[in-house]
Amino acid sequence: MSSSSSFRPTKPSGWLAPPPLRVLDWQRRQEAFTRSNLCHLMLRTALENGHWTLLPLPGEIAALPPAAINAEFAALTLMMGEADRLRSARSYSVGANATGLAVAATAGSSPGEAISLDRAPSPHGLMLFADPIGSDVAMYDTPAGPVEIHTPIVAVSWSVWDGTRHEVGGRPVTWMHHNPDGAPSLLDPSMRGVWMTFYAPRVQDTVGIDPDQPVAVDQDGSPVTAAQSVTADMSFQRRDPHLFGPLAWNNELVLPEGDVFGDIRPHTAQEWAATVYTTWQIMQQSGRSLLTEERRHTLPPAARKKAAAKARTTGAAQKIGDGAVRVVDLAAPARPPQQAADRDKAASDGRRTVNWSCRWPVPPYRRSTCTNPYLHHKLNDTLHEHHEHREEIMPLRIKGPADKPLRMPSGTTFTFDTPSS
Q1: Of 7, 157, 301, 362, which is the most exposed, with the fewest CB atoms less than 10 Å away?
Q2: Keywords assigned by UniProt (predicted)?
């Protein structure tokens, strides 16, 4: 590896999320691309080079298989499963405030409750975030020197994982899991959980990237610049406009039901899954703990008719999900009053002691909430045999009298925002 003086980290980047009414079109195009020969070639090449997290193996296997894998079978199984997932998925568009809260809450602590299938807002789903929920960070040794590439993660698809996934076309399938921190292992065929596939944006839909900035590494080890990536994508889009997927498949995992997240290494699929799971928790909160509002968007009848005709012409799926996009963001009472906070911070005299003569910020945190206080306290169900406690996310709050200036402990301003890469 070359000396550190030649190290070139990539610049942070954001992305241009599609407006809600375009999400269904993106979903339809992504489903068509996932069934294409190009997607099959890309998956097979990645598998042959050892880049995989979940690997389907033909037949029933009691012990770990030999090193050789059937990349053809694995690629077809993965892409057909993902295409079916996208075709059945309900669509969600998550706004910047809700995305920021989920990222901030996950940065403070990962979900503490046992993973539950009931947290998913639908059995199959595709969720696009207004800002990246994390980034995939990889270091490459290229002829031009070491290059560190940050790839933003902006979308996730999911489905319930159960025993039916262990048959493809009537053939039994064994799944192997490759944990980056350990050796590959076979997944328990009786396991239930949630499958998640994480997506990055196309470079042409990102912002803050210089044309000469490396965004990938070619098979020969040479870096691919942002300008080269955009040129290649535009060429493909002109040649096969109906098979051009707007998102790039990055990674996948299965969250076993009943497991807990525990400590999470940053820039991993486990971290992104924790942020998605936190988003689901935020969406489920109701009553006095309500944090989000949801609006259901559908295409006008004329636009639906045009989209169906286009799908028939191109051979794409005519029906995607339930034909609606759910736009999710923080409800008005839960949105951070940024303008008021900035004004109060400017009025603060910089005192370091937190007291009731001022206001102070409380970062997002998690709390366990009893679902039935009567059973818990009146009937002494302290072991939770007949009721449960559920985890809730409390957003950043400004505490203290409303007429006092905002003071920051230790002279530090704590800003919670979504990472730009």
Answers
A1: 301
A2: Plasmid
Q: What are residue 392's DSSP bridge partners?
A: 367
Residue 419, in any domain of the structure: no
pLDDT > 90? residue 200 = yes
CA distance 135 to 287: 34
Place of tokens 């997944």: 187
- Structure tokens belonging to residue 227: 């300008």
Q: Is residue 375 domain-shared with residue 405, that is, in the same domain? A: yes
Number of domains, the chain: 2
- Our measurement of the distance from residue 212's CA atom to the centroid of its chain's CA atoms, rounded to an integer in Å, reads 27
In a domain, 233, yes or no: yes
Token pair for 14:
């954001």
Read off φ and ψ for residue 339, nearest 5 degrees: -65, -45
pLDDT at 21: 84
Per-residue pLDDT tens over the stretch 128-149: 999 899 989 888 888 778 888 8
Q: Average pLDDT of 94-115?
A: 90
Sign of torsion over alpha carbons 15, 131, 24, 56: positive
Beta strands in 218-336 (DSSP E): 223-225, 247-256, 292-298, 324-330
The structure tokens listed for 183 are 């050796």
Beta bridge partners of 390: 369
Can you tell me which residue has the tokens 């736009």? 327
- Of the candidates 419, 404, 266, 392, the residue with the CA atom closest to the CA atom of residue 341: 404
* Residues 248 and 76 sit within 8 Å (Cβ to Cβ): no
Please provide the size of the chain in residues.
Answer: 421
Residue 160: phi, psi to the nearest 5?
Answer: -75, 135
pTM score, whole prediction: 0.78
Q: Is residue 209 part of a domain?
A: yes
